[in-house]
Amino acid sequence: MVAWDAPGYGDAPDPERADIGWYAEQAARIFDEPAHVVGVSWGGVIATRLALEHPVLSLTLADSTRGSGTSAEAAARMRARVDELAEVGAAEFARRRAPRLCSDPSTRAKVEATMARVRLAGYRAAAESMATTDHGPVLGRISVPTLVVVGADDQVTGVEESRLLAREIPGARLRVIGGGHAANQECPDEFNEVLLEFLSEVEAARCA
Question: Which region is the signal sequence (predicted)?
């Protein structure tokens, strides 16, 4: 398993561009051969483009979305987050957003600590890539086994957005689990069970 630091996050250098296609190209470079791809939130939007433009074995979208370019209002809300981060700083930005990501206090503290490391350059590029992306019209082109997972209490992307993804991606299955937007962290056992069940089925079908 490989956990990828997208450009501008973790230990990765700041991004050179701010579009989803470029991020997908960077992600594709870590694979020597097709792999099972799991993307959470913005990572799911990158993973969607990866599955559209590069060979993958399967796609899992967790608490994800088509992108924020679905309307001018959604794009403006996404770009406004950058202004807030620049104004209040990473620590305060994380403190304000963490309660929307999960309800469990212990998980919230971990999410807040991680988010407090966000860098303005990385977040600005990520937000712009979201604001200029709407995968809605091309979801029907995804041809690999796809799992859509969402926390029942997701206040950020929401269950209905995940339902739309599962409906528009051919053959996709939807699983609603516990937790909020950070469901994979808030309910890791349930998330892992659902994911491993899906991956096992995909691998069994490949070997049949």
Answer: none
